[in-house]
Amino acid sequence: MTSGFEMWDYVVFIAYAILILGVGLWVSRDKEGHQKNAEDYFLASKSLPWWAIGASLIAANISAEQFIGMSGSGFASGLAIASYEWMAAITLIIVGKYFLPIFIEKGLYTIPEFVEKRFSTNLKTILAVFWIALYVFVNLTTVLYLGSLALETIIGIPLVYGVIGLALFAAAYSLYGGLSAVAWTDVIQVVFLVLGGLVTTYLALNTVSGGEGILAGLSTVFDAVPERFEMILDESNPEYKNLPGLGVLVGGMWVANLYYWGFNQYIIQRTLAAKSLKEAQKGILLAAFLKLIIPLIVVIPGIAAYVMINDPEIMARLGLAAQENLPSLEQADKAYPWLLQFLPTGLKGVAFAALAAAIVSSLASMLNSTSTIFTMDIYKQYINKNAGDKATVNMGRISAFVALVIACIMAPLLGNLDQAFQFIQEYTGVVSPGILAVFLLGLFWKKTTNKAAIVGALVSIPIAMYFKVAPKGWSTSSIFVDVPFMDQMGYTLLLTMAVIAIYSYIQHKGADDEKGIPITKALFKTSPLFNIGSFAVLLILTVLYSLFW
């Protein structure tokens, strides 16, 4: 075993890169006699089939923060971090049944566009600015940082060059082709992502078991660290602050997941580009099933790495290479890149291609959605109201490029960030409860008013920052001292909803708002396939939580 890349690894990785760029540019081409319009660029001509939607949802979602960040959290805290993945499966079903019918009926390009139709242009602009800032300064920046960290750890590419290389790769096809290029390349990316991830999982478990295979490896890891297979953490666990026991199942995790899967532009944009509502719902169902297996490829390797570095016999077998870039509880995010260096020649290229696929697909998705929001909700609203298709598409490309440049400048500044997955959740959690409160009440409570929604969105930030910053300096008599951030999100959501509900009631004296959405039973009717699939997902999750409670 060698820690560097060899010829066949480079061959595999270069072949992957050529395939992605080739497919991306091929599907991006303008059809003869047809000028690419806004629907082509931002919504893939509303032509995506269910399997492309499901694959693209997973490829957009699984990125460096999962492969590296979630493996790091698995190394530090164990299987409990998998709740983000398994509860996401339930969330996807809720989104498919209750949110998508409304979004698709309204023919949306962007999530802020829904806010304009339900509330007002002012609130749409506020939330559009929120999202653009979040995508550029948190999501894009962190994915670039983690991806380049992996390049540096595995093949020695300096961090800055890794950031530039990944940015150029994602930009090469996504800036020109738009969502169509992103979604169709995602179908290929997700194959690399899953197969490459399984290769790394097999290597880790096979190494732990001394070459006796994956099942023996799982048994060995479970016997060595049974406490790392507990889904519901006790208060005595050092990671309780990140995953607060039952609060994960009934509290802030729902805020994170409902916001992310239901109202996050770079995720929901795929479903808005579906051929039909039924096609979008089938795609959502496929993604829910895929989420059930994701912990096997992003969490288990981290737990296995923890067992490996704490077993002198295994470390001795691995040789001197095992001492390089060694992960620790203080630098848990080194776990996944550290594992990759032990893969045999050729397979290392496959696994690295999987990691690159996860990073590049997410970067491309975030870029496309950032440009969609800026172009449709800022540029066309305030800068050029009469912009034609050519000007709109060009502005989409320019704004994506600018966002990428800013993220490239910011990424190296993250420095020694540890457990990046938790970092993303924590800082997204400052904004997401307020946005979720606005959407939930806007969708399902016809009395919600525009002014109340604006007040709620703005008030949610100081409420979230109070829970995050203020209590730590207070006496221990405060009921809000050191509240886990997931609980902070839950409290912020409830308080923001209360503010919106009270303000709405005072403003309209309990009358329905004129823009309230009429809710009917027929609107949420789903096919037998969706119902049976949803029941199967819930059954599997019940079994998993019963086993690892």
Provide the descriptors you would attach to this structure in a database record.
Na/solute_symporter; 23 helices; 549 residues; Na/Glc_symporter_sf; mainly alpha; globular; membrane
Word description of this protein:
With 549 residues, this protein is mainly alpha-helical. It has helices at 7-28, 38-43, 50-61, 64-77, 83-105, 111-118, 121-155, 159-177, 179-208, 214-224, 247-250, 252-263, 265-272, 277-298, 300-309, 312-318, 335-340, 347-383, 389-410, 420-444, 450-468, 485-508, 528-548. Helix 1 (7-28) runs parallel beside helix 18 (347-383), helix 5 runs antiparallel to helix 23 and helix 14 (277-298) runs parallel beside helix 23. The radius of gyration is 23 Å and the shape is globular.
| First-last Cα distance | 37 Å
Query: How large is the count of helical segments?
Result: 23
Secondary structure: number of strands: 0
State the major sheet: none
Q: Helical percent range?
A: over 70%
How large, in whole angstroms, is the Cα Rg?
23 Å
The fraction of residues in strands falls at under 5%
Oligomer: single chain
Question: Which stretches are low in confidence, meaning pLDDT under 50 for 5 or more residues running?
Answer: 473-477
Shape verdict: globular
What order do the helices and strands follow?
HHHHHHHHHHHHHHHHHHHHHHH
State mean pLDDT (0 to 100 scale): 82
Q: Structural class of the helices, strands and pairings? A: mainly alpha
